[in-house]
Amino acid sequence: MSLRLSRFVGHRGIAAEAPENTLTGFRLAAEAGFSWVEFDVMLSADDVPVLHHDEELGRTNDGAGPVTAQPLTGLRALDAGAWFDLGFAGERIPTFEEAISCCRALELSMNVEIKPTKGREVRTAELVSEMLNDLCPDLTDRIIVSSFVPDCLRIAQEKAPDFLRGYLSDNMAKGWQEEAKGLGCYSVHPNHACLDAALVTAIHDAGFRILTYTVNDPERAATLIGWGVDAVITDEPLDAAVLA
Ligand code: G3P
Ligand code: MG
Question: Is 40 in the pocket of ligand 1 (CB under 6 A)?
Answer without folding.
Answer: yes
